[in-house]
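[Meeting: bench + compute handoff]

Bench side (C.D.) handed over the final construct sequence. Compute side (W.E.) agreed to return the predicted structure before the next meeting so the bench team could plan truncations. Sequence as handed over:
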Amino acid sequence: MTIPATRPSRPQTNPEALRRAAQFPALRAIFTRRSRRFALGAQLSGPLAYRSDADPVPLSDAEEAILVAAATGVTGVARDDWPFTDADGERTGAQQLASFTGRSYPSPLATHGTELFWTNDDGVFFLPQRDVAPTHYRQLTRQDQRHALYRRAVRLADERLDVPRRTPNLFGINHWIANAPGTTLFIPVSDVTRVEQANASQWNASLDIPWSEAHGLGDELEDAACEVFTWLLQQELVAHHVPSSWIPRINPAFLEVKLFLSGKVMDEARHAEVCVKRLWLNGHGPSRTGPASDSFLAPLTQLDDYEQASLLVDVLGEGQILDIFKIVYDLAPEEATRRIVLLSRRDEARHVSYGVARLRHRMETARDPEAVGRQVVEWIADRIAVSDEFFALPENVQAALGVLGREVGIDGRGRARDFPAEANRFRAGRLEAAGLPPGAQRQIHQLLKRA
């Protein structure tokens, strides 16, 4: 909702005023900060009632540009004198820094999850800066740079935003001036949309699955379905364990990450729950499993580097499950199984998106992206060396998919045989989307091709 108003014209920029502002002492600004003026065109009621007879005078473009840059600007590269390890090789906590991007406003461990909106007589504006990386060692030191940043703002509306000037939106002392004609109202907003999206996507393993549709399935199909869900349960239990073990190890300053991972843990717990419910639905229960899958999965639960864990679990591991869910959906013998993998796949897509975005942010903010790329190649090579399931599905799962495929007229065995090549294409696409250097991408391609 917007409010119409006669728009006061902006004043011309006064170069001398800008010069004085740039030279104003910082300590004097901090220790003598007071509201010394009654705004032109403003009106105050109550015991101190007063009304200005002058017309409102908004900020000039240059003045507003300075305030916008001060509230949200990227100021360059932050070179902290903070080694990652001390003289004894112990971690100092520096590895928990979110980035080395310098900004004009403080944030714990450089998380900087706040975006700036503002409204004035010209409309409503937004300047997306959360994922912006520095392009120079020092930035925004000149007025022309600040003005260039200001001009990149996105206009969201052509009229002033109607923020009701009443309690509880505003304290009574601010009713007379906040968002009045001629003013600029700044609205910093902390971005928790990833968490909200995860919360909104929660579903119920008991109520949201049409369980009755899977009752009475024939023994051969039920055996095949349980082979698949037993294997999926193993994967989901690891996907649940890994983020849950990292949550208490992440600094509370990264609250959004902790909340997102908490939602991820809830997702994986629900996936494990729904697998168990499906396994026992017709009294069959889990199939017998050998030690191979456990030996392949166990190393993922013992990783000491979160970046490595996110790459192997979020990007590659859950990416693989995401792709397998598509096959199971196509071969599902009844609606309950289709619904299970459809809802679970939606969750896994969100997890994979998080992993890719996290790796992309790491590449964009790394001082040496090539070094990060080499580390990714090494981690993938190490994983390939210990896990046959990085490529081919276990034989019992392939056979089960063949049984399910015959029921619906699809070559399930063929889909299982084609899966490694298909999965490798998806892996390559996700790593490319994460901004992995071309050289690292070529090395990974060769690793996958040889394996």
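W.E. noted at the follow-up: Residues 335-365 form the longest helix (31 residues). C.D. will use this when planning the next construct.
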